[in-house]
Amino acid sequence: MEQALQMEQAAAAVAVREITIEEKERFNSFLADSVKGHVLQTWEWGELKAKTGWTPIRLVAERAGKIVGAISVLKRLVPTGKWCIFYAPRGPVLAIEEKDVWDALLEGVKVQAKKHNAIFLKIDPDVKDDNALWRERIESSGFRPVDKGPGFEGVQPRFVFRLDISPDEETLLANCHQKTRYNIRLAQKRGVEILENAPREQLKVFYDILSETASRDKFLIRPFSYYEAFYDLLVPQGLAEMFLATYEGNVIAGTLAFKLGDKAWYIYGASSNAHRNVMPNYLIQWKMICWAKKHGCTMYDFRGVPGDVDENHPLYGLVKFKRGFNGEYTKFIGEYDLIYKPAVYRLYHFAEPLYQKTVRKLINLKKRLRGQTK
């Protein structure tokens, strides 16, 4: 009987290990089937970030050979090269009720932190701000909240609009604000067409419009090579899609969207300065919702907004646009750091903003010099 009890305990025990590329599909399938699974935790997202200076480390927690928890950690060396930071975007992924899984994953990351000389682990799970159990788990495990302020100041947006797209399309459209419905129909009436599953050769067209948008709205974008890698790693795997809006034979808007399991996310958007009066952004967003629903999704995420702001805020127009589709205003639990090296952590948070400020100055100087040579 004692032997049977030991066998039962062994079967119930949680073991954590690092996985290799041979288990990529198994890893992604767990994420897709999980309530809190997110594209930013997938194998392919780690490969994309590997092209921008990060090194992915993927761990799974298993019970009796079945994955019950997962975390994809991105490692990045700090400028000295002696230490590194760990970041798990929208992770970890598990049923938070299973405390043994939570504890095992954190212990597994701690082992990796010691191996790689990590200063801290940052997490920002896909969890609402009012989830008491998640907050209790995080804070009782020694994580420190990182207040980045309102808006887009965090690594991932803390405020989004999310739409339940399980109702039929007719109901979803009827639930939109009247002005949103009007603009969707106006775009259709004016002859705007949406190309779903836009081919790879159209990526440069999207990027050119994205550059135009960035210049108009004054934000930075990554080089074209990043979007090439984004497309090549995610689109063929069914994790992303590109959409283009055309009018009178010309592309005037474009978007990139994520899809994993029953969830979809709007991620990048671009619109030309020309023909904005035909409202392509409304129609392309609506077609993305229909696309997500067609692929079995029940949740559509409009991504970041700068909090619940009033009409005087400079980004109120963005909030109004996304709110028009009748999504739920969602506030996430935010960023938390688990500190492994307290003294180095304090030094890092003193020096890192100065380093980023210097980098931004160099980027702006390079842009000005480039403009002078044209």
How would you explain this protein's 3D organization?
There is one protein chain. The protein is of the alpha+beta class and about 375 residues long. About 40% of the residues lie in helices and about 25% in strands. It has twelve helices and 15 strands. The chain has helices at about 1-10, 25-35, 45-50, 100-115, 130-140, 170-175, 180-190, 205-215, 225-235, 280-295, 315-325, 340-370, and strands at about 15-20, 55-65, 65-75, 85-90, 95, 120-125, 145, 160-165, 195, 240-245, 250-260, 265-270, 300-305, 330, 335-340. The strands form two sheets. Strands 1, 2, 3, 4, 5, 6, 7 and 15 form an eight-stranded mixed β-sheet that branches. A hairpin with a 2-residue loop joins strand 11 (about 250-260) and strand 12 (about 265-270). The chain is globular, with a radius of gyration of 22 Å.
